[in-house]
UniProtKB/TrEMBL annotation:
Ranges of compositional bias, category Basic and acidic residues: 1-11
Pfam families listed in its UniProt record: Beta-lactamase2 (PF13354)
Stretches assigned to the Beta-lactamase class A catalytic domain: 175-302
Protein name in the entry: Beta-lactamase class A
Species per Swiss-Prot/TrEMBL record: Arthrobacter oryzae
GO biological process annotation, one example: beta-lactam antibiotic catabolic process
């Protein structure tokens, strides 16, 4: 296009020069002025047309090609649920809800794996829900809770601290009570659990559980998935403990020594606080899934033949977690 705009004036100049000897000087001056005006108009028209054509081509290309991510987006891709908000081109989509479609998905996964016992409880914490508000799937009776019940023991001991009946600095075993609490939750240490249980007292632990609306006997260590959902919901919502103790207990429920169940199946961008349980044929995980102001308690209890089918049950736990997270976040 640049070649075209430079040739046109030269052609006009040769035309202007063809009548130079026959016209009077005044006429020649008028003719030259007119030619100059014509050339100026032609140049302006040619330049404008060229720029207009380039602009149109660029707009067409931009519309046809997908927009490239910025450097920050490429190195730190946003979670799918935050994509629209990150682009600022549309408001964030509303969070999902526990509806008939999700119920059907969860029930279908459980039905497809009927060789195992699965009990699932799901609570929407944005509503301040308790056990009565838990959505339950599969087996709703009590399971041997295994190590998931350690969260209840931890909450009971923190309660003693807050009422002045115990201290995190109290000697306990070879360490302090605070150390034993962390080991019991984050590393699922059974010796630490025994020490904490003894400090709380078995009867007192039963009474504390009852105050939460949970029926619990330390001797049998059994809970329904909905009861476990009540316990972790109370911890996360801050209704059981003060802010400092709540934050500390939740911190112990991250980066644990067994992250292969619910945490392994949660999409990036969702925070998980959890306590797993593994004892013989029992394989459980009790978790809080949180993102922004959205949070759910998800408890999955399972019972199989023995530890030989842990990989298969782990896969089903992943399927259930993905169904829940995909629908709610």
């Amino acid at each position: 296009m640049d070649d075209h705009t430079t040739r046109e004036p030269r052609t006009g100049s040769r035309r202007a020069g063809t009548g130079r000897g026959r016209a009077p000087r005044r006429v020649r001056a008028v003719i030259l002025a007119a030619v100059a005006a014509v050339l100026a108009l032609a140049l302006a028209t040619g330049i404008y047309s060229s720029a207009q054509a380039r602009t149109a081509a660029n707009l067409a290309a931009a519309s046809a090609a997908p927009s490239a991510p910025t450097t920050a987006q490429a190195s730190n891709p946003a979670p799918a649920g935050l994509d629209a908000a990150a682009r600022k081109s549309a408001p964030s989509p509303p969070a999902g809800s526990i509806d008939a479609a999700l119920d059907a998905k969860v029930n279908a996964i459980i039905a497809a794996n009927s060789q195992y016992q699965f009990g699932v409880a799901l609570v929407d914490l944005s509503k301040g829900a308790g056990s009565a508000d838990a959505h339950e799937y599969g087996v709703q009776e009590k399971f041997v809770a295994a190590s998931t019940a350690k969260v209840l023991a931890a909450a009971a001991f923190y309660h003693l601290v807050e009422t002045g009946d115990a201290s995190l600095e109290d000697p306990m075993g070879s360490y302090t009570a605070g150390f034993q609490l962390r080991e019991m939750i984050q590393q699922s240490d059974n010796d630490s659990w025994s020490l904490i249980m003894d400090a709380v007292g078995h009867e007192e632990l039963t009474e504390y559980a009852a105050s939460l609306g949970v029926s619990y006997d330390p001797e049998t260590n059994t809970l329904t998935p909905a009861e476990m959902a009540t316990i972790i919901s109370g911890v996360y919502s801050g209704t059981l403990l003060n802010a400092g103790d709540t934050a500390q207990l939740l911190s112990y429920m991250q980066d644990t020594n067994y992250e292969t169940l619910i945490p392994a199946a949660v999409p990036e961008g969702i925070t998980v606080f959890h306590k797993y349980g593994l004892l013989g044929d029992e394989l459980h995980d009790a978790a809080i899934l949180a993102q922004g102001s959205t949070a759910y308690a998800l408890v999955i209890y399972t019972k199989g033949q023995d530890e030989s089918d842990i990989p298969e049950r782990t896969e089903v736990i992943h399927q259930l977690t993905q169904a829940v997270a995909g629908a709610l976040f």
